[in-house]
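Usage

Read records sequentially. Each one opens with the input sequence:
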Amino acid sequence: MNTPPSPPGAERTDGSPVRIGALVPLTRPGWVEAGRHLLAGLELAVREVNDAGGIVGRPLELVVRDTAADPQRATAAVDELAHLGVAALAGEYHSVVARAAAARADTLHLPFLCSSAVLDALTEQPTEWVARLAPAQSHGWQIYADFLLGAGHSRIAVATQPSVYWASGARILRNYLAPRGGTVVELDTRELDPKAICDELVDHRATALLLLVGHPEPAVPIVKAVRRDQRLAEIMIGAPAGQPEFAEWETLLGDDGAAIPFLRYLPERLSPLGARIEKALRERLAEAPSFVAFEGYDTVAVLADLLRSHGADRARTAESWPRVAVEGTRGQIRLSRTPGISVRQWAWAPVQVVDRDPAKPDRFRILHTG
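and closes with the structure output:
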């Protein structure tokens, strides 16, 4: 790699902190609840690293910046964090925001381990500076498509909003389902209100409606409208992007929010490490941790391992992605080159299709595993 020198002090041994920049959506229009869980995982891992002696005697410090789901704000945060001398970047939940951050990190030669964003093309060109823990969208959403076919759904409608992420999801579903006898019709929520969406579902004789839209708007009103339309009593609502994962979904929708399958990235059974971290995250969050909290924890675990082994030099961190072998909360983490993915990738974190149990909406049912 053509590598600029690391900032002064990158290899200091005077006990000054090793800093990691954290990009997290903490205010609207960002998905604040996801950001809160992501930050809880990041912070818990930093605390545990420091309790175990830090980075070769130096404390690990998280420098948090709120992206608010704004790509320009994220880019500015990357510039600021690079100037502050962080050893690496971590985090981000929103795919479009992570893509902007990754492009800037690549330009600045700043290592970025993306926690949660799934967009396949996280960077336009292959880069050595960016790696990712979350499964790529094409991997997870094809597993979701397999679930749909297995459940007998071949006439699929998708409610969409303009976004690279939603457009990518619709394309993945269409390309995967079409050769297997499935059809996908798109319903543009800019043109159709919830009632009109219900009418379209009836006209197209769809058996499943997938929510490729933001939360809570317009996802929540669409769910309520479909649940109240007697013509659609048999239709399945799905949310592959994971909107029902968080407690706010149940708060806003109650029983209407149950039986809506979504993707999450957890194993069927947690390891002893995963179970211990689940307990600690539950105490920190005062609620059940989502898979996003585990992603945050695993991100710092990987970066801390690299920093201990190779120092806080940015170039050495980026060069060391292929040597990662870390026991994470959800399995052994290794980072590799994966066809069609522009960044170093954990291939793959465990993938589940789950929903909230109608008999007890705060409990999840595993419907399918990838």
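Summary fields computed downstream for this record:
- The two ends are 35 Å apart (CA to CA).
- Residues 2-10 have pLDDT under 50 and may be disordered.
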